[in-house]
Amino acid sequence: MDLISEDTAKRLQRVEQQIAEVQSEMLRSAQEYLAVQARIELLEKSIERHDEELRELKELSRSLQQQYDRFGEKIDKLESKLFSWMQQLQRDNAELIKAAQTEGALERQTTLKSWMTFLQYVLGGTIFIIVAYVFGVNFIR
């Protein structure tokens, strides 16, 4: 005699079979849970690494901005120095041109005076020779 009926035994077998199926599904679910958990941990580490890299990029960006600002300031200073140097160069050139014109004018005046003096002597000598010739011819006759 059986302690349990055949119908109950069949039900019990089906329950055991269902438990085995549920166990395999639970095992698969547990494995999936572990895989998902590992992915989550990997993603969290990636997020932390990306956050750190983002902070480093922000710091680098600030540093580059500061260098760019300093570079711009240096270019502005260089531009103003170059502009003032060009202005001074123009002033110096104007003074040199004025001095050269003044020296040239003085030189021309000196040269003109010497030519005028030479012309005076030539004309004076010519007039003297003509007068001497006229009076010399008249005295000789």
Descriptive notes:
The protein is mainly alpha-helical. It is 96% helix and 0% strand. The protein is rod-shaped.
Describe the structure using short key phrases:
141 residues, mainly alpha, rod-shaped
Task: Give a short overview.
96% of the residues lie in helices and 0% in strands. The chain has one helix and no strands.
Topology:
Elements: H1 6-140
Shape: rod-shaped
**Largest sheet, if any?**
none
Uncertain spans: none
Number of strands: 0
Instruction: Give the N-terminus to C-terminus distance in angstroms.
Output: 201 Å
What sequence of helices (H) and strands (E) makes up the elements?
H
Number of helices: 1
Helix/strand/pairing category: mainly alpha
Percent of residues in helices comes to over 70%
Radius of gyration, in angstroms, nearest whole number: 59 Å
Strand coverage percent:
under 5%
Look at the structure and give the mean pLDDT: 86
